[in-house]
Amino acid sequence: MPRRPPPTDKPSALDAPSEGVLIRAENGDVVTWDETGLTLRLSDKVLADLRQRLPLPAPRQDARALGDIDAWNLRDQDGWLFFDARFDPALGPRTYRRSHAGGDIVAAAPGPLLGLFAIGGQRRAGFISRPPLFAQHIVAPGDDIGAVGLEGTATAQSTAKLQSVPWSTRETLLAECLLQDRLAQGRALPLHLCRAETDGSTSVYDLPTGLAFANLLTAIDSGIAAARSLGTRLSVPAIAIDFGPEDRQCDAPTLAQGLRALMARLEAELIRRDIARPVFLLTAEAGTARDTTHPAIAAHATLSWRPGPHRLTIPAPGYMFEQTALGRPTDTARARMARMDAFALTEALARRDWHCPTFLLAEAMDNQIRVTAQAMGPLVLSDALSPGPALGFRLTGTTARITAVTLAEDDPKALILLTDACATGGTLHYAHGAEPSPGAAGLPPNRGGIRDDWKADDPAGGPPLHRWALPAILPVWGA
What we know:
Immunoglobulin-like, 3 domains, alpha+beta
């Protein structure tokens, strides 16, 4: 009888599995196999790294995910969805991005994220009820606060997100002007981060310890985090300081020193964050309809020629801009202020001079006063702002009165003020100490009629822009 084969527990080749899992994680299979070999599942982080190192094609995306916009050429990169679109006919097709985490669309702009910030009193918190031009190039921290800030009502929280700006502030208007100039010159259009923080401080020495300062630092930290997510860095070209009549405690010298201390503190905070010192922008105070002798006028005048070791630029005197009865700029004035800010900042960043005529010396001889100015061009006499027959000059501490103002024949940057008596020992005021006119809108009572020969058109079609002389208070010396 034939012998039977011994039993075996080994499965036959026909019974062997054709696929399986070698390594499994909580979020799925990591290494699997089949008859063709091993399959390795790579993480999103590894894939992103490979796309940076190798020319791997990005996964195709559907433009409908962006909403009803004219977009094409979608691609994924480093947590962002990049695409081409036509938002503004004036700009034509450009590249934009939106975070996979959500949020608003921003420009895929070259270079660093540029922070335009401001700190001051409630006057700075105003805005124009329209979104900015270049909307995808002008954004705010994505904390649902906007570009105006919290106005000292609460504490802001840092965020790496960015969001569009629904209203136009001095900072967004400044960004608009800078972008318009670059567009006209065929230059790159960067991304601007804008935020103004204000509070109710009644002393310049309270400002660095208040909510406005703390929230401004939070906005800067948000800019650093947002720039990191964009794959770039934060640069801060300018911080505007808007604090003057709000101070009810300091005299002029103390206020000037407090503003220098504020700039030093801001510089220290930026340096601690590895950010270079900014240009500080300050519109020279000219008072309001009710207060024409506030110490801030003299303090700002002092800073114009003695700013300390800071990059302080004064784009214009406040008397050339319309204000409300409460002393706040009108919408028209905000746009004109931003245009002057843009001119001054552009020159300052290029390490070129920008300064309005600044009166430095008043010398009396017989019945005339010679006033010498620092100016970038020859002085011009003008009644465009209706400054009165003395063009904004007045005398105190003497019985002498100004009867005429003329240009010096031997110096294009000097004036001759004719008087009815010798004014030695008196004080000469320019755009300072005028008779108050309560409740009047328009230009403040402190106005002047001296400027240099620089001129620029107002893009909104208003009166031409000039570099008007800064307010001044000078002792009249004997020649």
